Amino acid sequence: MMSDLNNGISRRSVLKGAAVGGLGIAAGGSLLAGCGDKATGPLAYGARSVDAGPTAQNEALIAAYTAKTGNEVKYNATESNAFQNNLSQYLQGTPDDTFEWMAGYRMQFFAEQGLLEDISDVWKDIEDQYDSSYKIASTGTDGKQYFVPQSWYPWGLHYRKSMVKELGLDPENIATFDDMIKMFDAMKKKGLVGFAAGDKGGWEAMGTFDIINARLNGYQFHVDLLAGREKWTDQRVIDVFKQWELLLPYTNKNVLDLEWDGAMQLLLQKKAGSTLMGSWFGGNFKEKSQEDYDDLWIVPFPEINPEHGVDTIDAPIDGFCVAANGGNTEVGKDFIKFAGDKEGMQAMLDTGIPMTSANKNQDTSTYDAFQKQQLNVMSQAKYITQFLDRDTRPDFAGPVVGPAIQSWYKNPKDVNKIVDSLQAQWEALPAL
After folding, report:
1. Which pLDDT band holds residue 70 (cuts at 50, 70, 90)?
2. Which overall architecture, per CATH, does domain 155-313+388-427 show?
3. CATH 3.40.190.10 domain span(s) along the chain
4. Using CA atoms, how far apart are residues 248 and 241, in angstroms rounded to an integer?
5. DSSP letter string over 9-40?
6. Furthest CA-CA distance within the chain
């Protein structure tokens, strides 16, 4: 599975049809300066969502774009899994001019095949509106840009502020691993699951591996491991699983029977005190009640190794690409530039569906407390990773790492066999 979408829409929406459009550039600026003079005519736009929330946002973006430019947009929405599974064939055929996709490795993979249009000229106009980390995440291995960011969501430790206060703890000061264990011990005494988890889908626990690895071993080791420059048999990887094992006494026993939303429901129903997850599920709390939503909080997963602190965070970035084989690449660039402008982004925010803009110039005055806390969590990170299944080969993440972690849950003492198998299967992968 994929880690998709940063809107306050449910993860189920993400799995059915992730991400939504919209990004950031200076409002009122001329469209596509530097991208040519032929940014006219109809546009075909491929959305990887059929759900109500993303659809509403995309429709708002399209309406704003058409009103400003007069260019008509044909909107083609596809269920997420189907879109992702068929993307290679789609891009090699007659794709839409622009489409929703993911930053980082997932973008680079198709750029290297020549299936994405170089949009470095767009970036010349929008660069001052994005932090450098977003440009890095939008850059191919050739140094050119192929992606415009729209939104992001952080992975962090989520809990209810009220429940933590009832334990006599400060919900805004769970800073170290020991702080977290102290909280879990107090929750356990009250008969609560301290650390809710679900990994039935095989992707969910990848985020836990990412974060613990980054906390113990740092950003560089983590990205080198996922790129094959470090070995899965390294003692540092074994240490990740050993550290993770310390959380198992506080974890629900039916991890492999629950998907992400099952773990979320434990927190929503006050049967669990916390969960490590991406912040996409804020909408689920809001659907139950505004009171439940206002009670939801996120902090960075706590420090383990002071050398690395909380320097790294998983924050998947969603946005747009232009298909190299599209019928009108210039108008495709025109559209994603508008989507990247805060004017286009504002059109989506005005729908009232929570999302966190990647554009640093976006007006955040309308953000609620939970959205602002997501920004705060993000501000503490020096390094941004996407998510394991976005940061490594897709033929390794889902088919290999996912089942390996599930095997570890069944028998944590088999960790040496598991890492041996992981390394052997990495080495057996075909050359790209």
Report:
1. very high
2. 3-Layer(aba) Sandwich (3.40)
3. 11-153+316-361, 155-313+388-427
4. 11
5. S-HHHHHHH---------TTPPTTTTS-S---
6. 67
330: phi then psi, degrees, rounded to nearest 5: -65, -45
CB atoms within 10 A of CB 61: 27
pTM of the model: 0.79
Q: How many residues does the chain have?
A: 432
Strands ordered across the beta sheet of 317-322: 73-77, 43-47, 98-102, 317-322, 148-152
pLDDT of residue 365: 85
Residue 78 tokens read as 């596809």
Q: Tens of pLDDT along 317-375?
A: 999 999 999 999 999 999 999 999 889 999 998 888 778 889 989 888 888 999 999 98
CATH 3.40.50.300 fits 11-153+316-361, yes or no: no
Distance CA 149, CA 8 (A): 17
* Res 90: pLDDT: 94
- 122, 340 Cβ separation under 8 angstroms: yes
Q: Which of 65, 81, 83 is nearest to 73 (CA)?
A: 65
Helices (H), 320-414: 329-340, 342-349, 369-379, 388-391, 394-396, 402-410
